[in-house]
Specification:
Blueprint: H1 9-21, H2 25-34, H3 41-54, H4 58-67, H5 73-85, H6 89-102, H7 108-125, H8 140-153, H9 156-175, H10 182-202, H11 206-218, H12 224-238, H13 243-253, H14 258-261, H15 264-280, H16 284-297, H17 303-314, H18 318-331, H19 336-350, H20 353-361, H21 370-382, H22 386-408, H23 416-431, H24 435-448, H25 453-466, H26 468-475, H27 481-484, H28 490-494, H29 511-517, H30 582-585, H31 627-635
Helix pairs in contact: 1-2, 2-3, 3-4, 3-5, 4-5, 5-6, 6-7, 7-8, 8-9, 9-10, 10-11, 10-12, 11-12, 12-13, 12-15, 13-15, 15-16, 15-17, 16-17, 17-18, 18-19, 19-20, 20-21, 21-22, 22-23, 23-24, 24-25, 25-26
Keywords: Acetylation, Coiled coil, Cytoplasm, Endoplasmic reticulum, Isopeptide bond, Phosphoprotein, Repeat, Ribonucleoprotein, Signal recognition particle, TPR repeat, Ubl conjugation
GO molecular function: 7S RNA binding; ribosome binding
Pfam family, one: SRP_TPR_like
Amino acid sequence: VLQINKDDVTALQCKVVCLIQNGNFKEALGIINTHTKVLTSDNIAFEKAYCEYRLNRIESALKTIQSASQQTDKLKELYGQVLYRLERYDDCLAAYRDLIRNSQDEYEEERKTNLSAVVAAQSTWEKVVPEDLGLREATYELCYNSACALIGQGKLNEAMKKLQKAEELCRQSLSEDSDVTEEDIEAELAIIHGQMAYIMQLQGRTEDALQLYNQIIKLKPTDVGLLAVIANNIITINKDQNVFDSKKKVKLTNAEGVEHKLSKKQLQAIEFNKALLAMYTNQADQCRKLSASLQSQSPEHLLPVLIQAAQLCREKQHAKAVGLLQDFADQHPANAAEIKLTMAQLKIAQGSVTKACMILRSIEELQHKPGMVSALVTMYSHEEDIDSAIEVFTQAIQWYQQNQASQTRGANPKSPVHLSLIREAANFKLKHGRKKEAISDLEELWKQNPKDVHTLAQLISAYSLVDPEKAKVLSKHLPSSDTMSLKVDVDALENSHGATYVRKKAGKLTGDNQQKEQGQGEVKKKKKKKKGKLPKNYDPKVTPDPERWLPMRERSYYRGRKKGKKKDQVGKGTQGSATTGSSELDASRTASSPPTSPRPGSGAAVSATSNVIPPRHQKPAGAPATKKKQQQKKKKGAKGGW
């Protein structure tokens, strides 16, 4: 037909539709653009906008739709999709509501699914509390979108239940089709399992999340957006550990077409993690390049500057890092508080605590916060700068006084935070010897609550060190001992579960013993003595030595160690000399003594009553009289023997 008439409108329209059905969007758009005189926006606007949408020319598609003279239902459907891709969620929500309200056909379920997807995106990316649309969650797509909205609100347990319901519905709907295999079902469930793993990661169950993420990657899903998100989440779990695995996963985030599948915030998060991974792998130039690119795209964003500062700190350039943060704080005052907190942390890491305090005190919106006051007082105390610490307390107390006066016109009492600061200031001053200053704070507290006995006691204690007379006067305001006495059941208290001492009840006594024990205290139970262990060689017939408990030296029969006595005298003396004394070998000297041993065959023995000294107990005739002389001879070098 077109060979006969190349400008036939119906033939051109049919050819464009056929090309779109075959996925040849570029060729179809080329035909539309070359026949603009014949194919006007009135009769081909939808086809042109759809080709531009599928070619990811979203802005052009929006212009084409808006320029159409007549807004048909199919153009409105496409308009909603375009607005969703442009992340104009409020306009998109209005468009789908209008479609659902003014159309009745078989595509109503799909429109409700798209509407729930818009609500989920608002909850996730814009932190908008979603309104209840009253949609019946009859399909797994609706359950999945509802779970995403709950994740955006932080309701993780409820979201997990919705995802489990979505998984069940998905299996049921797909299993009804006989042509669908188990692999097809698992591929369809991959996105649901991915959200389940994300919830586990948010709940701190990183091992379970990592295992589920890896299972999804093994399935090799065709959705490059899903793979990119899962790979990014695995990188965040790895952090500075297992960097080689993270470098492999980064390749999945660089797949073709990822930028058209994810939102701007998702893509930005992936780029941030790439920069951090480059820092962890010591790729300093790559880290600086990525962070600088991110900063140029989002000049007001904190993370690119913090990544650059962290990289400089890894290179030991702390001063340069602080300067970079200071420049950013000057250019973006709205984010100055977070930047200055980071600067203070760097100064503390360098050991410059005083400079860190100066930076913290420059954050005006945080000066009065109890956490900031506590941190500054602690740091100043560490530096032994008590005056500056007291000044921090004073400024915070004054801020609360002025703020409260402007809000309540001085009519209402002080806030609990204000009173708490005054009390902490008084305790700090007392601790560091500033008694007079502490007294003024305590008096202020007592005026606010005259019934506060604790404050009054502190005040009296402080005055007792400065003005005892004043302390006596104030002590009259203390309640009497009668009013302070507590009605306590002592027995119940002693027998309570938490008592450290429990008084045991005495057993029942009978007869005379009962009369004797009346009026007396508790009977102490006698401890049985354990029988001592006796030595193995103990003989009950032999009387033990009464002095056995005394050291040997202190016993009456101790004679000291015998020095110089030769044992057996075998092998002693010079080589070749006899060991026996000369007097023992002289027979004339021992003529009157009996033989040292009985003669063989005689059977005679030495009498036990004989007064003759046996040869072994005899002293040699030539032996020295005293030991001292023998020791003197040895000192002179005398040798034994003949």
